[in-house]
Design goal:
alpha+beta, Beta-Lactamase, Heat Shock Protein 90, 3 domains, 5-stranded antiparallel β-sheet, 5-stranded mixed β-sheet
Length: 506
């Protein structure tokens, strides 16, 4: 048995533009409002006019009920006097509802006169003197009728009649004409007003949706690759359009920042792989060259073999050190997932940076005994305590790298100063030299990976270009920062800044 297909729950997208739908909806609501208002006005007007007719009709009926039915032919003067009330008819009935006399106040009553119902005395009493509407004898006109009983004393003496009834009818043609004119006028004015509102609404909706048009243009520009494009502020910030514009511009700024960061990360990654490949290739080429020499028999003596193995060992050590540095940077770059420990766990413990400063002083003397080296406080003065919670082995690696740079990249005999102490809520350790210094461009990139100020890439002075990058990453992992103050001819001052130990701080 084939089951009937269920109707799709997804709504079909509208083929009309938003401004067209808004305009149509607004005009429809206005049209309904105008139509409802017109109907209410015409209904109230008809009720008001019918109430006035009923008042006149009641007065006329009371007068006619006090008159005895006239005898003879023609309209008596009393009935002709009713012609001032308009198209009016007076009909006298007996108690059984038979017509005794009927008079017309006009020669040609509209629609041939009212189509009066047959009413006996009981039927007249049932209406209780309340006016009611009857149709005309022919045509679509209406008449308003009031039925009243006549007292017996209005009849001439000697008649045996106990009484009778009188029906007074007035045409509603004037009321219908007034209501019709009012309705036609309302429709005409409403149609003209609706047309004017349609034109004005089109421009108003178009102006109101202009921010959305600008948003569409901005989205198109971004789709084309222009991530710097922004939505112009065309409305006050507290309005819906203003808030939407602010949110979109904030989102676009974040997207632009994300794309720029991704592009920079991709560029750094490409540069990293290029530099890493160059750095790894150099020792590998040296090792391969020496092994090729040995395989070809170009090392005839034992002394030649020993020298070659020494060089292979040196290149292998350089290669191992480079791989370890790259591996350390990779571990420092890893962002741990929530609840997981970082890839590089630091062995944090209370310590005093003075220990590292004193050891650095001895390292400088061991590397270059002729170089003047002094121990001072930050920016001079007497050295002081610098308590911090840190991984001493990792910080020692940072300080050793800074000392090595100061000795390697400055001329022999250049003074070196090691400063240690506290500055505000921070523990500070400085390594300063009086060498040639760096330019502003070099200073901006000195902590970049594989960056060396020596463009020749000489291994004796240039190194791998990873030392300062590792130092920066390790200090950052401690919650601190490393900075550089330098200028051409004024030397370099590397400053390690760490939070003071909580015990000391309090």
């Amino acid at each position: 048995m084939t089951r009937p297909a269920l109707p799709s729950l997804r709504r079909r997208p509208s083929r009309l533009a938003l401004r067209t739908r808004l305009l149509c909806l607004s005009i429809a609501l206005v049209a309904v409002g105008l139509l409802g208002t017109g109907m209410a006005v015409t209904t109230a007007l008809r009720g008001y006019l019918e109430d006035r007719v009923d008042d006149r009709l009641a007065l006329t009926g009371q007068i006619a009920a006090r008159l005895a039915p006239p005898s003879g032919t023609g309209n008596p003067a009393s009935v002709r006097a009713l012609s001032v009330l308009g198209d009016t008819t007076v009909t006298y009935l007996d108690d059984d509802g038979a017509t005794l006399r009927a008079f017309d106040a006009s020669t040609a009553p509209p629609g041939g006169g009212p189509d009066l119902p047959a009413l006996d005395r009981a039927g007249v009493l049932a209406h209780d003197g309340r006016p009611f509407t009857v149709p005309a004898k022919d045509g679509d006109r209406s008449w308003r009728v009031i039925a009243l009983t006549q007292p017996a004393q209005v009849f001439p003496p000697g008649r045996s009649d106990t009484g009778g009834s009188v029906l007074v009818a007035t045409s509603l043609e004037e009321v219908d004409r007034t209501v019709s004119k009012t309705r036609n006028l309302s429709l005409t004015v409403g149609a003209a007003l609706l047309a004017a509102l349609t034109v004005a609404g089109w421009f108003a909706v178009r102006s109101g949706l202009r921010p959305l048009t600008r948003i569409e243009e901005t989205a198109s520009a971004i789709t084309a690759g222009d991530y710097s494009h922004r939505v112009p502020e065309l409305a006050a910030p507290h309005t819906e359009v203003g808030r939407l514009t602010a949110c979109l511009n904030q989102m676009l700024s974040q997207i632009d920042t994300s794309f720029r960061a991704r592009a920079e990360a991709e560029a750094r990654t490409r540069r990293f792989f290029a530099d890493a490949g160059h750095e790894l290739r150099t020792p590998l080429v040296g090792i391969k060259g020496y092994t090729d020499l040995y395989r070809m028999g170009a090392l005839p003596t034992r002394e030649d073999v020993d020298q070659t193995m020494t060089r292979i060992a040196a290149e292998s050590e350089r290669l191992t050190r480079l791989v370890e540095e790259m591996f350390l940077l990779a571990r420092l770059d890893e962002d741990p997932a929530p609840g997981q420990e970082p890839a590089l766990a630091l062995d944090l413990a209370p310590m005093d940076l003075r220990t590292l400063a004193v050891d650095a002083l001895h390292d400088v003397r061991a590397l270059d005994a002729s170089r003047p080296v002094t121990l001072s406080g930050p920016a001079g003065g007497r050295p002081g305590t610098a308590p911090a919670v840190a991984d001493e082995a990792r910080l020692r690696q940072v300080v050793t790298n800074l000392i090595g740079n100061a000795v390697t990249h400055t001329p022999p005999g250049t003074p070196v100063r090691i400063g240690v102490g506290t500055v505000g809520p921070h523990a500070v350790l400085e390594v300063a030299d009086q060498g040639p210094g760096l330019t502003p461009a070099e200073r901006e990139r000195v902590f970049d990976r594989f960056y060396r100020t020596d463009d020749s890439r000489a291994r004796t002075t240039g190194g791998s270009g990873l030392g300062l990058a590792i130092a920066h990453a390790l200090v950052t992992a401690h919650g601190g920062r490393i900075t550089l103050d330098t200028a051409p001819g004024q030397g370099c001052t590397f400053r390690i800044v760490l939070p003071l130990s909580a015990r000391w701080h309090h």
